[in-house]
Amino acid sequence: MTTTANSLLVRDDRTKRRNAAELRFRAYGLGAIGIAALALVLLLSSVLSSGVGAFSQTFITLETSLPEAKLNKSGLRDPAVMAKVSTFGYAPLLRDALLTRIAELGITTSLSDKNVDAMISKEAAASLRDHVLANPDLIGGKVTMDVLADGRIDGYFKGRVTMESAARDGNTSPEALRVAQRLADAGVIETRFNWRFLTAPDASDQRPEAAGLGVAILGSLYMMLVVLVLALPIGVAASIYLEEFAPRNRLSDLIEVNISNLAAVPSIVFGILGLAIFINFSGLRQSSPLVGGLVLTLMTLPTIIISTRAALKSVPPSIRDAALAVGASKMQSVFHHVLPLAAPGILTGTIIGLAQALGETAPLLLIGMVAFVREYPAAYSHEAGLFGEAATALPVQVFNWTQRADPGFAERASGAIIVLLVFLAVMNTVAILLRRHFERRW
Amino acid sequence: MTESISTMAQLKISARNVEVHYGDTIAIKDVSVDIPANSVTAFIGPSGCGKSTFLRCLNRMNDTINICRVTGDILIDGQDIYDHNVDPVQLRAMVGMVFQKPNPFPKSIYDNVAYGPKIHGLARNKADLGDIVEDALRKAALWNEVKDRLGSPGTGLSGGQQQRLCIARAIATSPEVLLMDEPCSALDPIATAQIEELIDTLRQNYCVVIVTHSMHQAARISQKTAFFHLGNLVEYGDTDQIFTTPHDTRTESYITGRIG
Ligand SMILES: Nc1ncnc2c1ncn2[C@@H]1O[C@H](COP(=O)(O)OP(=O)(O)OP(=O)(O)O)[C@@H](O)[C@H]1O
Ligand SMILES: [Mg+2]
């Protein structure tokens, strides 16, 4: 006790060195977490800052007169005849309405008719036409509608387009922006939340303001459904057989190795496989959610099998012995005791596999899911059979939009990424909740 | 010597020239033994001598180990349990087992005990099943401790209670033979005493085979004792005789604590 060398109150050199090493290691760990967190924050903030814009949209409130003479020359109100008036017939009506509004507000401007036309989205005439064809009684009167502003005007209110950039832009001008600003001050132009981004189908290169994710979201949902319905039962059944019933021999070792290999195969290879088997050989429709779902099923299966087997392995063997010893059959021991204990792991693995599949782009490009889908495919109606028509998927839509020239699409792409991330976050939350629910604490 | 005993009590299990291999290594060498009904038989011997291996042959739990190979004959009530036509699942309903480490199902106490009767269709209705559960828990001396919380998890019990729960689970299916592999190895003296008392009462209805490392326990509760050493059955006889006048020097050294 008197010699300091043996005192417990004084740390010896070894202890000091060990403590220092531990401290250093903790610092490294904290550093690593810091870097990861920073990367996450950077990613999220960049996506959010460039993507939130996609969720709001600039609308112009216009009271448009619908002259009988132009829209219903025959006077018959026959839908077939009325449909002959194309969107080009409706565009001037909107322009006139906007010009009237500008005049009413006492805004003087040197904008030509063409320039005023350019302030309204090309989509607006189409939606006005649809509205009129659906309600022919409106003809001869006036209709008040919120129509989409052109992408540049929209960009101006979101800060993407400035006076300087407009001066260099052939599609708009500082004068147009000035008028737009006056209209906004008067409450005619308004930027607000845009449900259409989540519901509308894609739009052509010239009208980013009208493009939406509706078809892509549906396509992704259908594919996830196909994956869930096919991959979960097949994967779980295969895992149970391999883990609990299959004899351990060369063949089962070979299968095991190959499943691990499959999990590491680049996803694009599954795309090639899908193209060869499902499209060229089986003759299923190109770019349909069914083929996409089948390809993603192939891709997800190894993930599900590996995680399910890990979950089954982690169930203590004593539970199996206990069941067998009271006279349960192998199958009873698996289904009554092992599977319930493995369920949280299986579910988590499945949802992680699904999330992986949801974000997968490469194989879908190969099977033609880049399809530009301007209208809701008939797929989403009863006649076509749900999974048969051309569709697109969220990640492919992102890829698609980033390819396009108009800067409005860059914003849309980031917006689509946000939607994708929200879906992933929801799925992971569900995975955690299910885990909690099934994980009984005993 | 063995003959004289087996004529006294009814014969339940009869093993003839049993050999067990794990892959290339031999774990049990040419063991022949006759175990009488309505008695407690103790297997003793140093660690690794094959007691558990032999015990697991009696309800074919060894079938679950891939590399394990059993030769020879084991007859229960004169029927060869390794016959092609014998379904091990059916056999295990008749030969219950309690493991060295308590392994209750992660389910409620009630479900733990009710599981066996349920899958074998032993109860005609819910009330019937409840009676079976109560009866098994009473026999395992656990009823008074758990009767108010049958719905709570079996894994939430103490180690000794869990072991008694496993015993209740094993006897709920009314087996004819009960195999117990060191059931008291993790228990305190009080729980051990309770289980020993239980084993003594179980003897009236069952043929009990117990593996134990405690000489005292073997001496206290068993009528017959088998001493295993390095895979051989060295000596088998009445417990009194084994512990007082062992024929083999190895037995003597073991029970006096010189080998093992
Ligand atoms: N699953 C197995 N695979 C391979 N060898 C095994 C296996 N189980 C047991 N053995 C071997 O068989 C021999 C007997 O083992 P066993 O478990 O029967 O011993 P034991 O008498 O029960 O010992 P203990 O008193 O320590 O429980 C040992 O040498 C052991 O290594
Ligand atoms: Mg043992």
Number of domains of chain B: 1
**Measured distance between first and last alpha carbons of chain A:** 47 Å
* CATH top level assignment of the largest domain in chain A: Mainly Alpha
Beta-strand percentage range of chain A: under 5%
* Number of H- or I-type helical stretches of chain B: 11
By CATH, the architecture of chain B is named 3-Layer(aba) Sandwich
Report on this structure:
- The complex is a heterodimer of chains A (442) and B (260).
- Chain A contains 19 helices and three strands.
- Chain A is mainly alpha-helical.
- Chain A has a three-stranded antiparallel beta sheet with strand order 2-1-3.
- In chain A, helix 4 (87-104) packs across helix 6 (122-134) and helix 18 packs antiparallel against helix 19.
- With 260 residues, chain B is an alpha/beta fold.
- Chain B has helices at residues 2-8, 51-57, 88-94, 109-120, 126-139, 143-146, 159-172, 189-202, 215-221, 239-244, 249-255, and strands at residues 11-22, 25-36, 40-44, 68-76, 79-80, 95-98, 177-181, 207-211, 224-229, 232-238.
- Chain B has a six-stranded mixed beta sheet with strand order 6-7-8-3-9-10, sandwiched between helices.
- In chain B, strand 1 (11-22) and strand 2 (25-36) form a beta hairpin.
- Residues 1-7 of chain B have low confidence and may be disordered.
- Chain A binds chain B through residues 247-248, 316, 318-329, 332, 336-337, 341, 440, 442, and chain B through 59, 61, 64, 66, 89-90, 92-94, 96-97, 99, 101, 103-106, 115-116, 119-120, 153-156, 166, 169-170, 172-173.
- The complex binds adenosine-5'-triphosphate and magnesium ion.
